[in-house]
Design brief:
Layout lengths: L1 H25 L29 H5 L14 H20 L5 H21 L4 H21 L3 H24 L6 H17 L1 H24 L12 H26 L2
Helix pairs in contact: 1-3, 1-4, 3-4, 4-5, 4-9, 5-6, 5-7, 6-7, 7-8, 7-9, 8-9
């Protein structure tokens, strides 16, 4: 059953990843993600159905448009494969549970937000703000069906706590953190709060740790200066993913080391 679930999640993740490529390209430009249909940005030829199979079509076409032979960036199949990987690891962590759909949504929107932030250094409200309602609605399913209302209450409080913490940081040092990060923090706080306070603390810490390590590496390699704007959203999202997978374990290990 687990193998079947993971195989299904891999297929679904590939399909979702294909759609996320459209989202990542069009949302920052204010374009519809529904119309027009997928087309080559160079020659405007519509992508045929047989050329729209995630990863496989790119490989068969050798990374080029069928009509004009313009190269198609390897990023497209990488996004599809990465989304599938995220879906699989979330499925392995949560199993066939009522909470899984909520976290699959987080995985999907997280991939899109991370890439958009890397591209344009912005976390669009059109993706972040609806995620509050989606998260609370989807987590209401396990709260209702599995009688996990205490977890639901902690999720709501976790969203408030992480939002408030990031709000204070952004207010104190606006040059180092955008308000988009603050709004994203509230969403991540809901999910991490659902899993427990240890997961929430681990997710917040890992985001800062990853961002700090990469920032120092960029400075040391002269690929960035102290004035270079480095998007923080991808580190927040990666830290949250790691916390979903092992946040509780990491928090307990830390407490054990501290003798608490």
């Amino acid at each position: 059953m687990t193998a079947l679930l993971l195989a299904l999640l891999a297929v679904v993740g590939l399909a979702v990843g294909s759609f996320l490529n459209v989202v990542v390209w069009r949302v920052p430009r204010g374009e519809s993600v529904v119309t027009p249909a997928s087309h080559c940005p160079a020659c405007d030829a519509a992508v045929r159905s047989r050329d729209n199979v995630p990863v496989v079509s790119w490989l068969l076409l050798r990374g080029r448009c069928r009509d004009c032979r313009t190269p198609i960036a390897a990023r497209y199949p990488l996004v599809e494969a990465s989304t599938a990987l995220v879906f699989v690891v979330l499925g392995a962590r949560l199993g066939a549970s009522w909470e899984l759909p909520a976290f699959l949504y987080l995985g999907a929107v997280g991939v899109a937000l991370a890439l958009i932030d890397l591209d344009v250094k912005r976390l669009p409200d059109v993706l972040v703000l609806p995620s509050y309602a989606v998260a609370l609605a989807l987590l209401a399913l396990p709260a209702l069906l599995d009688h996990r209302w205490p977890d639901y209450g902690r999720a709501v409080l976790g969203g408030v706590v992480l939002y408030a913490g990031y709000f204070v940081l952004a207010y104190a040092y606006p040059a180092g953190m955008g308000f988009g990060d603050v709004k994203l923090a509230g969403v991540l706080g809901i999910y991490l709060g659902w899993l427990g306070w240890g997961s929430l603390a681990a997710g917040a810490f890992l985001g800062f740790l990853l961002g700090g390590v990469v920032g120092v590496a960029l400075l040391a390699s002269a690929r960035a200066t102290r004035k270079t704007a480095i998007p923080y959203g991808p580190f927040m999202l990666l830290g949250a993913l790691l916390a979903v997978l092992a946040g509780g374990t990491l928090a307990r290990a830390y407490l054990d080391v501290m003798g608490i």
